Amino acid sequence: MQEAVLEFLSKRHSTPISALAAPGPDEDQLQLMLKLAARVPDHGRLTPWRFIIYRGDARKKVGQLLADRLEQLEGPLTEARKEQELKRFDRAPLVVGVVSSPVEHPRIPEWEMFLSAGAAAMNLCHAANAMGFASNWITNWYANEEEGRRLLGVAPHERVAGFVHIGTSQTVVPERPRADMEAKVSEYQGPWNE
């Protein structure tokens, strides 16, 4: 069992959103994915995150809202740019917004709550992949723009940890170069010195 888990983790990758297609998860599969996604470190058991489900016609509505908002920000869009925005949430059969929804607490900092939301997004990707689906976790311009977040159902005090696009892969994703671990791992040598 441990070897299978290690093998699974060693092959983790993101599938390009353009390669995600139907079928997506059914309702029971989605509920299981979300339940597994919620099994994350959560200092104080605050559950400082939530999920927003974008599927069916909601994906097209979101695309239109985003295209309209981007035109307000940048002026008239080219047809290609407008089409890109219209299809933002319509490329995969399911998109799950993972939202950091901090809870006031006298000792637990907000950044820890944001990390918990990020862990939920990663768990969601793992759960989707373990169930045979492909996924891609992104943010994009609308995650960092106040009105964009509002249009996507995110409250003013919340921030987007990511949008996880889930579907069935239509391609084999080639392995990409990974981090040079020797350059990324060090033994503690004492306080940081310039």
Automatic annotation (TrEMBL):
The keyword Ligase does not apply. FMN binds at residues 12-14, 39, 43, 137-139. Keywords: Flavoprotein, FMN, NAD, NADP, Oxidoreductase. Residues 20-167 form the Nitroreductase domain. It comes from Paenochrobactrum gallinarii. Binds 1 FMN per subunit. Residues 175-194 are annotated as: Disordered. CDD domains: YdjA-like. Belongs to the nitroreductase family. Pfam families: Nitroreductase. This is Putative NAD(P)H nitroreductase. Its cofactor is FMN. GO terms for molecular function: oxidoreductase activity. Residues 175-185 have a biased composition (Basic and acidic residues). Its EC number is 1.-.-.-.
